[in-house]
Amino acid sequence: MDDEQRERQRVVVVTGAGTGIGRETARAFAAQGPGVRVVAVGRRPEPLEGTAAAHPERILPLVADVTGPGAPEAIVREATERYGRLDVLVNNAAVVGGGELGGLTRERVGALLATNLVAPVLLGQAALPALTRSRGVIVNISTAVGQRGWPRDSVYAAGKAALESVTRSWAVQLAPRGVRVVAVAPGAVDTPIGEHTGLGPEQLAALRAWQVAHTPLGRIAQPAEIAWAVTQLASPQASFVTGVVFSVDGGALVM
After folding, report:
1. What's the per-residue H, E or C state across 121-185?
2. Which of 18, 102, 147, 195 could form a disulfide with 42 if both were Cys (CB 3.0 to 4.6 A apart)?
C-alpha cells in the first residue's frame, strides 16, 4: 500500500472538535478522501453536529469529557470498535482562564491541568496499542505562549509547555514502535476560546490588539491555518518527522 492509499484509509480522533482549531482539523482530515473517518470529540452535542455537517458520512460526533473517569479508554474504544483501527490522535481540547498569581485557586489550577495535560497523557496511553498496530501519529496542540513568558495565564502556559516536553519524550519512547509524536504551537488564533478567559469585551479587544502588535505578520490566524499544519505533520509524507514542536504563530516567537 503506497502513501496515497494509506492517506485514504485512516481513522482520526480529534478532541475539542466542536469549535475553532478542533473543528477545522476534523474537517480538514475528513476532506482528504472517502476512506478517512474522523471521531470528533467534545463536551457539547450541538457544536459537534455543526462540525460533522461538513462531512456527515466521514465525521462521527462523540460527546465526551476528556477529563472524565474512563473517558480516554471509551474514546479509543469507540474509534477502534466502530472503524477497526486508529491512525491519528489529535490532542486539541484545552481550557484557559486560570488568571494571574494571587488570584488562583486549587480547583482552577487542577481543572486547567486536567484538561490541558493529564487528559492528553491518558489519551495517548489509551491509544498506544492501536497506534502501534497502525504505526500512527500523535499530534499535541500546544501554544506559542508555552515557549515564552505569559503574564495573563501562567498555569495555562505551564501546562502547554509540559505538553511539549511530553511530546519530545514520547517521540523517543515510541519511535521503536513506529509511532511518531509531534506538536503544533499556534500563536493568536481567531477562535471562541478567547471568550472563556474571563475578560470583558474591551479587555479582550485590548488583548487581541496586543497580540497583533506582537505578531510580525500583523494579524490573527484562522483555525484552518492551524489545521493545515496538523494534517501535514500527520501525513505519511512526514514519516521522518517526530519530536518537533512546529510553531504556527506569524513569527511571534522570533519577534
Report:
1. HHHHHHHHHHHHHHCCEEEEECCHHHHCCCCCCHHHHHHHHHHHHHHHHHHHHHHHHCCEEEEEE
2. 18
